[in-house]
Amino acid sequence: MKRIKHILFAGALMAAAPAFASSETAMPYKFEPDTGNEASLQRGARNFMNYCSGCHSMRHMRYGRVGQDLGIPEDLMQANLMFTSKKPGDHILSAMPADAEQWFGKQPPDLTVETRMRGPEWVYNYLMTFYLDPSRPAGTNNLMLPGASMPHVLGELQGWQVMETAHAEEGAAAAEAHGGAHAGPGFTLVSKGSLDEKEYEKFVADTVNFMVYTAEPGRNGRISLGIKVMLYLLVLTGLFYLLKREFWKEVH
Ligand code: HEC
Question: For residues 131 and 163, is the Cβ–Cβ distance under 8 A?
Fold first, then answer.
């Protein structure tokens, strides 16, 4: 009986976990992942390998599988995306030595299934909301993960922003007055990056799309299989209908 209670309790905790994660901090940006867009996934893979794999692994993912699934030829993959290994069969491991914890105060976590743990929208907001904070060792902080020990590695691209606390409230109030269409993040860019706002949003969207793919690499295959099965059933129904008419012709 006690055992069952424990199981029920664990179940309740697991069911509540996503709710906790999302209620902690309001997310200023809306995001819907799109893993059906192969070009976006390819750009996302490039972004991840160039800007993230130095610190973060995806140890449940192999280079070869990424190339195959996303239609990236092996030679291109090897020349442009494989920085930490030369064999397509290898897992995507970061270049980080084991003592990275001493550098950042925290080991950069493996990101293979990150979007399943935090949700794609959370990760999108995380990458959008690094802001300057001189009180932090790296000089930046993050709205979604206060006190984050990850530096703003995309600062060169996004530029550097400060959080306007007063504006954040005004922004939220204005957004509410307008039916919540735009929840003002309350950030002001103080130094431009190499990308403009739209380009940076696209960069982050591509990156998160790629991460959603790695968290569930079979997903697209399942969707297209589902469509094939539905088409097959439809065709079959049509054939049976014709067959039925053929059989009953004589009777009428
Ligand atoms: C210089 C090293 C470094 C680089 C490069 C880096 N990160 Fe991080 N990242 C970290 C560290 C360290 C943490 C742990 C932060 C903490 O918990 O305080 C982290 C945390 C994260 C988290 C939050 C994990 C969680 O759920 O708590 C996400 C998401 C993330 N990184 C994504 C990325 C992405 C995407 C990129 C590439 C655009 C990237 N990181 C590049 C060091 C890095």
Answer: yes
Q: Is the pTM of this model over 0.85?
A: no
Instruction: Note the CATH number of domain 32-217.
Output: 1.10.760.10
How many alpha carbons lie under 13 Å from residue 247 in its C-beta half-sphere? 6
Ligand 1 pocket by C-beta < 6 Å: which residues? 51-52, 54-56, 104, 106, 108-109, 111, 114, 118, 123, 126-127, 145, 148-151, 153-154, 207
Is residue 45 within a helix (H) or strand (E), and if so which, with residue range? helix 38-51
Tens digits of residue pLDDT in 108-165: 999 999 999 999 999 999 999 999 999 998 899 999 999 999 999 999 999 999 998 7
Mutate to test the pocket of ligand 1, among 150, 156, 206 (most ligand atoms within 8 A of CB): 150
Question: Residue 178 — very low, low, confident or very high, per pLDDT cuts 50/70/90?
Answer: very low
